[in-house]
Amino acid sequence: MREVSFYSHEEEGILRCNICNHRCKIREGKRGICGARENRDGKLYALNYGLASSINVDPIEKKPLYNFHPGSKVLSLGTIGCNFRCLHCQNYSISTASIGDYPLEEITPEDVSTLAKEYGVGGVSWTYNEPTIWYEFTYDASKIAKRDGFTTSYVTNGYMTEEALKDISPYLDAANVDVKAFKEEFYKKICKASLEPVLRTCEIMKEEDIHLEITYLVIPTYNDDENEIREFCRWVVDLDPSTPVHFTRFYPYYEMLDVPATPVETLKDAYKIGKEEGIEYLYLGNVSGLDEENTYCPNCGELLIGRSGFSIIRCDLKDGRCPSCGFKVNIII
Ligand code: SF4
């Protein structure tokens, strides 16, 4: 347990958590929406500090991060809890779990670096559940991991507050942010959250020089409308056309079992829209064997990185440039 990094005192006996944009008002003895922060005797505590639900070594492509140290391995860690309530959550067993009803391993920030060294990975990734749920631990461990020469990355729903994000940004190299739809109504109904703070997070990441990639899970009838996808793509281009975008395939899961898997044609349509709008690095995910999992030069179309699932089968870059036309690519090696 550890005192929360960002909170304020409201009226008598009520604290406001400022870690994510829900900014929960929490009464004495109560917890916030994520279930991980509790008001105890007038102080706000993170209950899950150093309590890991999952620790694995993954290819960085699994996050997905395709333009950030391609082919490298990362130590991946998550805890339990979430600040969203997505009906299609792929990790609901940990995102909906409470402390006491899920097996958790206690670790220290130093342990993360030690494990990363033991496994010989290049970085540490906060993933599986929303990283801001154990923000304080990810902050401390990322700081040590950076000191020890590892990269750090967040796989996130992008709902952290500006103050929390700016504070951790010196210790955060990369992030994949889920933009779950481009309509407020979807965020309200499906995630019990709001779209605007997520878009703002992407802007701040750019300002803070954090390598950003965006995932858009395409769900039939929910967020696959051509106009919505085009609007999303235009927003990406305004943000920075060199931001890699992953359109990924939905499979029926959790409380959305009645919705069919995304047709591959729909994904290809999204890819085409992204190309038309000028996004430079586009990928299709959760479906294998497509050319759209490769990286092509945005300038001349040359194949730069060939992939098969999460494996790299070829990587042709010369000093961060396309070997064919010399274009400087947004790929960190
Ligand atoms: S981190 Fe948890 S307690 Fe804090 S504002 Fe978000 S949901 Fe509420």
Automatic annotation (TrEMBL):
Alphabetical keyword list: 4Fe-4S, Iron, Iron-sulfur, Metal-binding, S-adenosyl-L-methionine
Listed SMART domains: Elp3
Entries under PROSITE patterns matching the protein: RADICAL_SAM
Required cofactor names: [4Fe-4S] cluster
Cofactor binding, note field: Binds 1 [4Fe-4S] cluster. The cluster is coordinated with 3 cysteines and an exchangeable S-adenosyl-L-methionine.
Keyword Repressor: no
Residue ranges of every copy of the Radical SAM core domain listed in the record: 67-280
Positions with a binding annotation for [4Fe-4S] cluster: 82, 86, 89
Pfam families listed in its UniProt record: Radical_SAM
One term of GO molecular function: 4 iron, 4 sulfur cluster binding
Name recorded for this polypeptide: AmmeMemoRadiSam system radical SAM enzyme
Protein source organism: Candidatus Methanolliviera hydrocarbonicum
Gene, per the UniProt record: amrS
